[in-house]
Amino acid sequence: MRLLIVDDEEEILHMLRRNFEMEGYEVTTTPSPREALELTREVLFNLVLTDIKMPGMSGVDLLVEIKRINPLANVIIMTGYSSMTHVVDCLGQGAIDYFVKPFNDLDLIIRAVDQARERIQRWRAAMGVER
Hints:
Elements: E1 2-6, H1 10-22, E2 26-30, H2 33-42, E3 47-51, H3 59-69, E4 74-79, H4 84-92, E5 97-100, H5 106-127
Parallel strand pairs: 1-2, 1-3, 3-4, 4-5
Helix pairs in contact: 2-3
């Protein structure tokens, strides 16, 4: 399953890529939310992990645009700037989960992504879609 990870911190991108590739995901990473939008127009990503605070475009704006391109996308938000306003805004715009950096337990994020993958697989099976 394809997973897009968007974060302007290269260390986060590398760490998440390595972990999710070990879990069997086909991972694409970018530090640029604008590039992420171009990628989502070219490739169907049903799973997206994105930071909120990035140069050029916020993760909330990226979330809105991704959901416009693919309403069934499962978007998980990551941020080092947690506030209830961010949580409510992201969940209200369609994010399925929200994690605060630094990550205390990477397994929680992996489980959230795995649960989203299982949900997507159930939808595909119910609709008779192979991939």
